[in-house]
């Protein structure tokens, strides 16, 4: 029996093989959304637990990676909803992407604040699209929504960001 | 929506919020996952139950013989 078919029967050994193949990808994906390694590890474990629990519903003709990533994305979204505005975005200190010298310290703080205040669905889409520069198609697949929905969310997120920044006295 | 304004906003956001990129997992999480998996139920066959019942009956009816049996195990 094929690996994915064995997994659908609840075979733990098959699940372990799949887990070893996909844990890095799932962790990396969640990390991009929640931006905290400890939380990302916890959510990766929870995601795979849900994956195993749903083994009977998995169609072996489909992509295990895409299915797992969708479950992981929903979990990460639930996390963003739970923590609300408390999720912190670390400031960019990477030497490869230096801070725009034209952007003042206070403006940077305001942009982070505005980002934190975005509704979770828009925040998640904006992180992936604007910050991580992930293609819309990939974001759509991970969310289980059409590409048009992703475009619309990015549009709403940028509009909201501008409006919040305007309220904070910044015009971008 | 003005594309150049969008691009400028994206660029500024990226310069303020650090892109994570491809972050490596530092350890294997399998042990934590396996801990959450349902434990397989321990199944005891009818033969084992019968053997256990026989041992109990033997220990009640003939304790000496039972102790002798235990000593020889």
Question: Which secondary structure elements does this structure contain, and how are they paired or packed?
Answer:
The complex is a heterodimer of chains A (172) and B (73).
Chain A: H1 3-8, H2 12-34, H3 37-53, H4 64-83, H5 105-116, H6 120-131, H7 136-143, H8 147-167
Helix pairs in contact in A: 2-3, 2-4, 3-4, 5-8, 6-8, 7-8
Chain B: H1 3-16, H2 30-36, H3 46-61, H4 63-71
Describe this structure in words.
The complex is a heterodimer of chains A (172) and B (73). In chain A, 69% of the residues lie in helices and 0% in strands. Chain A is mainly α and 172 residues long. In chain A, helix 2 runs antiparallel to helix 3, helix 2 (12-34) packs across helix 4 and helix 3 (37-53) packs across helix 4. Chain A starts with a helix and ends in a 5-residue tail after the last helix. The model of chain A has no long low-confidence stretch (mean pLDDT 88). Helix content of chain B is 63%, strand content 0%. Chain B has four helices and no strands. Chain B has helices at 3-16, 30-36, 46-61, 63-71. Chain B has 73 residues and is mostly helical. Chain B starts with a helix and ends with a helix. Chain A binds chain B through residues 12, 16, 19-20, 23-24, 27-28, 31-32, 35, 37, 40-41, 44-45, 48-49, 52, 89-94, 97-100, 103, 108, 111-112, 115, 126-127, 130-133, 155, 158-159, 161-162, 172, and chain B through 1, 5-6, 8-26, 28-30, 32-34, 36-37.
